[in-house]
Amino acid sequence: MTEAERLALASLLYQLADDDFLYAYRGSEWLGLAPHIEEDVASSSIAQDSMGHAAMYYQLLEEIGEGKADALAHVRLAHERKNSVLVERVNGPGYYMENPEYDWAYAVVRNYCYTLAKKVRIDSLKKSSYAPLAALAVKINMELYYHLLHWQTWFTQLYQSTETARQKMDAALERVLADFGDLFDYGEATQLIDEMQLMEDQGVLLDRWYQALTPVLVDLNVTLPEMNMTYNGRNGEHSPDLNDALSTLGEVYLLDQSAVW
Amino acid sequence: MTILLEQEIRDALDTVKDPEIDAVSILDLGMFEAMEWTETAVGYDVRITLLPTFLGCPALEIIQKNTESALLQVPRVNTVKVVFLFDPPWTSDRITEQGIAGLKSFGIAPPRVVDGKWEIDCPYCGSTFVSIENLFGPTACRSILYCKSCKNPFEAMKPVSTLM
């Protein structure tokens, strides 16, 4: 592997790792605030699994010489992060410890759209030319089955409940799609990721995502809003929400980076 | 000698229980994948490969430490290294007959897939008249159910398969 190829592989791994890291964090912020206790258990469990996935991607980065996994998760600054903007967005106004006015419809729509995209990406990664990544995808896929089942159930049930729920879901879908444009993007590493056959073309993956989502939306009589890109997270462009998330996430680790846990 | 050592290591591994389900060992759960050792002047350096059930499972670190200390009790074992690999992936069909019995005795329905469908029998009365209360449970690998026959809540271990 040439140095340029190693960097392209690292870029892809950062995208995957940072996505699940922030997704897990936003999910964990619902602990104690979810609509009912069963959902508290389910959301936390999914967040825990997803943090496990992020940890494994950071581990793969450590193995190709990018530094220690813990440091990769906690010390990198916002402009070095390659996650999609979708997963860094706050759950709603307010703060976890004070007046959290979190939006459950937004959580359900974001989690469903993201998890469906993750399923498409993982299926592609199972065929990756980088064997350790392909093997990890096989393992993650087994856990993902339950996540997708969960969020698809919420998504269809909320859309089929009251008129208010439907309006909130529509508004959430609008906001999620406005940020979705960078999710399948590979940013600056696109060409090498393609040449090295690390993962399939972003257009192919996006089509698969549409194909999987369309029958669900048709059943619910929902029209998909236009997809846009506010920032391209894959190139390190982010909303201010990311900085806040990183400072909370890294608070303990940054107190004493040499501490033994 | 090597056959004896292998048996002693296996016996030691069988004393390492799931930290949350002490009725089953890591052997029963099928988490054990391989053992290797090299002989030195002071004894054996042993390396054990385990397969994690779920990637984010916080019990893994405890299992790793418990495995190390159990193996250090084996005579002539000098050092122990425990590593987790996710390839091959752990799947629930690796759970042994003894593991299935152990899970049931603990009140957990073992994972069972028949014709691609998850079949759950109540671990207390064997009834199939059960409902899933929550796909997610107290740990990543378990779900929460209710038996409509004997009116007991119980947990089930999620099937994990490459076919899903």
TrEMBL record, chain B:
Domain MIP18 family-like residues, every copy: 6-82
Chain ranges of the PaaD zinc beta ribbon domain: 115-158
Protein name: Phenylacetate-CoA oxygenase subunit PaaJ
Native source species: Exiguobacterium antarcticum
Record lineage: Bacteria, Bacillati, Bacillota, Bacilli, Bacillales
Gene coding for it: paaJ
